[in-house]
């Protein structure tokens, strides 16, 4: 598959199962990896990514999603230069230096708590993310600051994974 995935909720329930659940529900980790690979101009095979991530934590097998640092391990294994950043005040400048990034964060909606991964990159128009919202239909504009975007949305516990072709 060569296209970007803009909205995981649009993936048919029986296509690309992730553990016992549909990728439409728990597949954001492999989807962010897929989108990052495509943004880097690389090929990506969803089934291969799903198998890779399901093996990372044998007891979970994707049923609870993807471990926060798993994409960093994946890209390092492929030979990319990878940094993980936990301090939000460093996100903007670090992300601007990256070829592509994966952002992990937690969200809360009333009594529900969840986590999400998105692929993103900095463009001349600011930061752009992919597969951000359940109603996304294309790239999502975040603005000039990832920290401001996270604050606006009420997201917390964020980790930024920066990916570069070379060191």
Can you walk me through this structure?
This protein has helices at residues 23-26, 28-39, 46-54, 70-77, 91-96, 146-153; strands at residues 17-18, 21-22, 81-85, 100-109, 112-123, 126-130, 140-143, 156-164. It has a six-stranded antiparallel β-sheet with strand order 3-8-4-5-6-7, sandwiched between helices. Helix content is 28%, strand content 29%. The chain is α+β, with helices and mostly antiparallel strands and 167 residues long.
Spans where pLDDT lies below 50 across 5 or more residues: none
Largest β-sheet summary: 6 strands, antiparallel
The separation of the N and C termini measures: 28 Å
Report the mean per-residue pLDDT as an integer. Answer: 90
Question: Features of this protein?
Answer:
six-stranded antiparallel sheet, 167 residues, alpha+beta, 6 helices
SSE map:
Elements: E1 17-18, E2 21-22, H1 23-26, H2 28-39, H3 46-54, H4 70-77, E3 81-85, H5 91-96, E4 100-109, E5 112-123, E6 126-130, E7 140-143, H6 146-153, E8 156-164
Antiparallel strand pairs: 1-2, 3-8, 4-5, 4-8, 5-6, 6-7
Helix pairs in contact: 2-3
Provide a brief overview of the structure.
The chain is an alpha+beta fold and 167 residues long. The chain has six helices and eight strands, in the order ββααααβαββββαβ. Helix content is 28%, strand content 29%.
